[in-house]
Inverse folding.
């Protein structure tokens, strides 16, 4: 009886951790996408504006995937989400240093410092989420 209770508690805590990481990941993805959509609304246009809208859509789709998918698809979504935030932060850092698509960004532009912090935290959250998703046993 005790061993059975221990297994149930382990499964329960594993499920709680998994859902906590899924929810945190979805929040990070929505915030990253929301920042880019906000920047479009305050005046970022042209090719960069289009890319920011696509970024917002991707963040929304990945956030939904984090909450509704299961099994192997959840694992794929988690890895894609991690790569998405890494790519987004890398693009910003490139724009801050050598430029990207002919655009050189500055630290005093709208939400740049906040975005670097949020996306850095997002990478950590999504890396942990990826490990949790991969290590959580799948139920039949």
């Amino acid at each position: 009886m005790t061993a059975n209770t221990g297994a149930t508690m382990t499964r329960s805590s594993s499920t709680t951790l998994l859902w906590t990481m899924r929810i945190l990941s979805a929040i990070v993805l929505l915030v990253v996408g929301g920042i880019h959509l906000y920047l479009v609304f305050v005046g970022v246009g042209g090719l960069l504006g289009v890319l920011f809208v696509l970024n917002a859509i991707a963040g929304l789709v990945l956030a939904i995937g984090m909450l509704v998918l299961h099994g192997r698809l959840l694992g794929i979504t988690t890895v894609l989400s991690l790569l998405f935030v890494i790519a987004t932060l890398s693009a910003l850092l490139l724009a801050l240093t050598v430029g990207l698509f002919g655009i050189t960004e500055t630290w005093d532009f709208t939400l740049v410092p906040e975005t670097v912090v949020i996306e850095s935290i997002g990478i950590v959250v999504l890396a942990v989420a990826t490990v949790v998703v991969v290590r959580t046993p799948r139920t039949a």
Q: What stands out?
A: The helical segments are 2-41, 46-68, 71-97, 112-135. Residues 2-135 form one domain. The mean pLDDT is 90. Residues 22 and 67 are 6 Å apart (CA to CA).
